[in-house]
Design goal:
The complex is a heterodimer of chains A (about 290) and B (about 300).
Chain A (H helix, E strand, L loop, with lengths): L36 H15 L1 H22 L12 H32 L2 H6 L5 H34 L10 H20 L8 H14 L12 H8 L2 H14 L4 H30 L1
Helix pairs in contact in A: 1-5, 2-3, 2-5, 3-5, 3-6, 3-7, 3-9, 5-6, 5-10, 6-9, 6-10, 9-10
Chain B lengths: L4 E10 L2 E11 L4 E5 L6 H8 L7 E6 L2 E2 L4 H7 E4 L11 H11 L4 H14 L15 H12 L6 E5 L7 H16 L3 E6 L2 H7 L2 E6 L2 E6 L1 H8 L3 E6 L2 H11 L8 E5 L2 E5 L3 H11 L5 E5 L2 H9 L6
Parallel strand pairs in B: 3-8, 3-9, 6-7, 7-8
Antiparallel strand pairs in B: 1-2, 1-4, 4-5, 9-10, 11-13, 11-14, 12-13
Helix pairs in contact in B: 3-4, 8-11
The chains are: A mainly alpha (about 290), B alpha/beta (about 300).
C-alpha cells in the first residue's frame, strides 16, 4: 500500500572538478589543515576561562608555594648539592614546567572530554563553518595557553621569592613562559589524542597515572637523573617534560648553551607528529 | 528555481547498519518541510549529512545548489542548526553565547551585536541577555538555541525535534516564532515525532521508517490518501465488538477498513450515517469517538502500530 518514493539510484554522483577534497582532507595526511577558525575556538575557550578566572587563578599561585615550602624548605634542608646551590633553587626550573604540564594535560583530558561528550560544545561548533580540525587545533592551542598562563603566574611567585631564596638568576627566565606553551602544545596534543579514545571519564585517569605522573617524578626536576640506572635515564629522555625542565634550568640560571637549543628542538620535533595524531584520532571520533 | 535541498539515493551506513537506506527528496526554497518518523528512522542522520557534519556514504546531496562533499564550509555558512539537545555554553551568559557563535561565522562585531539584539527580541529573551544558561527554563533554552541558529542569517534553518520536552505553552511559542521565520522567507526543515506539530507547521513532509522514505506530500493529502477524512475510534468490550463487527464487515471495502489494535477498534473511511448507526449500536457515546483523521493515523498506518524498540 505504501507507495515508496525511495528508488536508490545506482549511478554515481558527478565527480567535482579535480583539486577539491572532501572536507578539505588531504589524502596523504588523512586530515585537513586547520585554518583561521582555530582562533575562534581558542577565543571561545579563553572567554569561558576568564568567566571563571577567580576559580582558575588560585591553584597556580598556591600550589608552587606549597611545593617550595614542603620540598625546598622542608626536605631541602637534608639535601646537599654540589656547589653552593640550595635545593629550593634546584627545584625552581622544574616547578616552572611541572605545574604548567598539569594545566595543559587537565585541559586536554577533562576539559576536552566535557566539551566533546558531556556539554555538546564540539557538536555545537561543528555545525558552524569550523571544521573538526579547527576545533582540535583550537583546543590544543588552548591547552598550550593554559600552560603558559600557569607558568606566568608561577614566575610571579618565584620573582617575589627571589630576594630571599635567589630563585631567578636571569631575565631569560621570562622565556619559560613560551617554553611552557611549547610543552603544552606537545602534551595537549597527546592528551587530545588520548581523550578521543576514551569512552568514560574514569578512563582519563590512566593517562595520568601511567604517563603524566612518571614523567613528573623522573623529569630531573627533583633530582639529577644521573643517580638512576642507565636504562631509566634513557627512558626519561623520551618524555617531553624532561626536555622542558632542562630548557628551563638554562633559562632560569642564565647559563644557556647549545644543549638547551637541542631540548627545544626535541619538543618542536615531537610536536608535529603529536599534533597530527590528535587531529587524526579526534577527527574520527567527531565525524563518525 | 533550484531546490534548497536535493537528495538522490542518499545512503548513510555505520558499520553494517544502514541508518539511511537510499532516500530521494527535494525541498524547495521557502518551504516548511517536515521529516516524520519513529526513533531510529534515520531523520537525525539525514540532518547531519545535510549540515555537513558527517560525510555521506553514497548517493548525492546538494544544499542550495552546493555539493555537501566538497562545499562543507560554504554550506555551513548558510545554515542554522537547532540540535536535539541544548548544547549551549553553560558558563557563558545568554548574550555571550550568541557572540561566541557569531564569531565562528566571521560576523563583524557591530553587525553581530545588532543581530543578537534582534534575535533576542524575536525570541522574547531580551530581558534575559545577561543571565546564565542555568537560570533559563527549558523553553527559553530552546528559543535561545533558535536565536543562536539565526546569527548568520541562514537561508536554511534545520530543527531536530525542536519542541521535545517542552510544555504546551512553550511549544506554541516556539511554533509561533517558526511560522514568523517562514514568513520572512527562511526555508525550514524540521524533524519531529509529534504529529500535531508536523500537521500544524509543515507545508509538506516526508514519512520515514528504517532509513527509507515511505511517502511524501502535503499533510492533508497524506491523510486523505491513507486514512480518509474521518476515523471512528471504538473502545469496546468483546460482546459489543462482535455486534459492531457484524454490522461493519459487510460495509467494508474500497474506502472503509477496520483495524483492531489491542483493545481499540479503528474504523477508517466510514460515511457519516454509518458512523451514527455504530454509535447507536454501542449505546455509550463516550466510548465511540468520531473524529477527524490526522497525521498520527497516517503515521501509524505507514509505520505500524507496534512499539518500535
Amino acid at each position: 500500500m505504501a507507495t515508496t518514493t525511495s528508488t536508490p539510484t545506482t549511478e554515481a554522483p558527478p565527480e567535482p572538478p579535480s583539486g577539491r577534497r572532501r572536507g578539505g582532507v588531504l589524502p596523504w595526511l588523512g586530515v585537513a589543515v586547520p585554518g583561521r577558525r582555530t582562533y575562534r575556538v581558542w577565543q571561545r575557550n579563553r572567554d569561558v576561562f576568564f568567566q571563571l578566572w577567580r576559580a582558575e587563578l588560585m591553584p597556580p599561585l598556591v600550589e608552587p608555594v606549597i611545593m617550595f615550602v614542603a620540598l625546598g624548605l622542608g626536605l631541602g634542608t637534608y639535601v646537599e648539592l654540589t656547589g653552593d646551590t640550595e635545593y629550593i633553587q634546584y627545584l625552581g626550573p622544574g616547578v616552572l614546567a611541572m605545574f604548567p604540564m598539569f594545566a595543559s594535560v587537565f585541559e586536554s583530558l577533562f576539559g576536552a572530554y566535557f566539551r566533546m561528550d558531556q556539554h555538546g560544545t564540539y557538536a555545537a561548533i561543528l555545525s558552524t563553518p569550523a571544521r573538526p580540525e579547527e576545533i582540535i587545533a583550537g583546543d590544543a592551542a588552548w591547552a598550550a595557553t593554559r600552560g603558559a598562563i600557569n607558568a606566568a603566574l608561577i614566575l610571579v611567585v618565584m620573582v617575589a621569592l627571589t630576594p630571599v631564596y635567589g630563585l631567578i638568576e636571569s631575565p631569560l627566565a621570562l622565556l619559560t613562559i613560551p617554553a611552557a606553551f611549547v610543552l603544552g602544545a606537545v602534551l595537549g596534543s597527546l592528551g587530545l589524542a588520548y581523550t578521543s579514545q576514551a569512552r568514560s571519564i574514569s578512563q582519563l585517569t590512566y593517562f595520568f597515572s601511567l604517563f603524566v605522573l612518571p614523567m613528573f617524578w623522573f623529569s630531573g626536576g627533583f633530582f639529577p637523573l644521573e643517580s638512576l640506572p642507565g636504562w631509566a635515564t634513557a627512558v626519561a629522555w623520551f618524555t617531553p617534560l624532561l626536555h622542558a625542565v632542562e630548557l628551563n634550568r638554562g633559562l632560569v640560571t642564565g647559563d644557556i648553551g647549545w644543549a638547551h637549543l637541542g631540548h627545544l628542538a626535541w619538543l618542536v620535533a615531537v610536536f608535529f607528529p603529536a599534533f597530527w595524531l590528535a587531529l587524526w584520532t579526534m577527527r574520527r571520533r567527531l565525524v563518525e | 528555481m533550484p531546490a534548497m535541498i536535493e537528495a538522490h539515493g542518499l545512503v548513510k551506513t555505520f558499520g553494517d547498519f544502514r541508518a539511511v537506506d537510499g532516500i530521494d527528496f527535494r525541498v524547495e526554497a521557502g518551504e516548511f518541510f517536515g521529516m516524520l518518523g519513529p526513533n531510529g528512522a534515520g531523520k537525525t542522520s539525514t540532518i547531519r549529512m545535510i549540515s555537513c557534519v558527517v560525510p555521506i556514504t553514497a548517493g548525492a546531496l546538494q544544499v542550495d545548489g552546493l555539493d555537501v562533499r566538497y562545499e562543507d564550509r560554504a554550506i555551513k555558512a548558510r545554515l542554522g542548526v537547532v540540535p536535539q539537545d541544548d548544547n549551549l555554553d553553560q558558563d557563558l551568559s545568554v548574550r555571550k553565547n550568541l557572540e561566541v557563535y557569531a564569531r565562528y561565522y566571521d560576523v563583524p562585531k557591530r553587525l553581530a551585536r545588532e543581530r543578537i539584539d534582534e534575535g533576542l527580541e524575536l525570541m522574547q529573551l531580551q530581558d534575559r541577555a545577561d543571565e546564565r544558561i542555568s537560570a533559563l527554563s527549558g523553553g527559553m533554552k530552546r528559543r535561545l538555541v533558535v536565536a543562536r541558529a539565526l546569527v548568520n542569517e541562514p537561508r536554511l534553518l534545520i530543527l531536530d525535534e525542536p519542541t521535545t520536552g517542552l510544555d504546551p505553552q512553550a511549544r506554541h511559542l516556539v511554533w509561533r516564532k517558526l511560522r514568523l521565520l517562514r514568513e520572512r522567507g527562511v526555508t525550514i526543515l524540521l524533524t519531529t515525532h509529534y504529529m500535531d506539530e508536523a500537521e500544524h507547521l509543515c507545508d509538506r513532509l516526508i514519512v520515514m521508517d528504517h532509513g527509507r522514505a515511505l511517502d511524501d506530500g502535503r499533510p492533508r493529502t497524506l491523510i486523505e490518501r491513507y486514512v480518509g477524512r474521518d476515523v471512528l475510534e471504538l473502545h469496546l468490550n468483546d460482546e459489543e465488538r462482535a455486534r459492531v463487527r457484524a454490522y461493519l464487515d459487510p460495509r467494508l471495502g474500497e474506502s472503509a477498513r477496520v483495524e483492531q489494535i489491542e483493545d481499540v477498534t479503528y474504523v477508517y473511511g466510514l460515511g457519516q450515517e454509518h458512523a451514527r448507526e455504530v454509535e447507536e449500536l454501542v449505546g455509550d457515546h463516550y466510548r465511540v469517538i468520531d473524529r477527524r483523521a490526522n497525521l498520527e493515523d497516517v503515521f501509524l498506518t505507514l509505520t505500524g502500530r507496534a512499539l518500535v524498540e
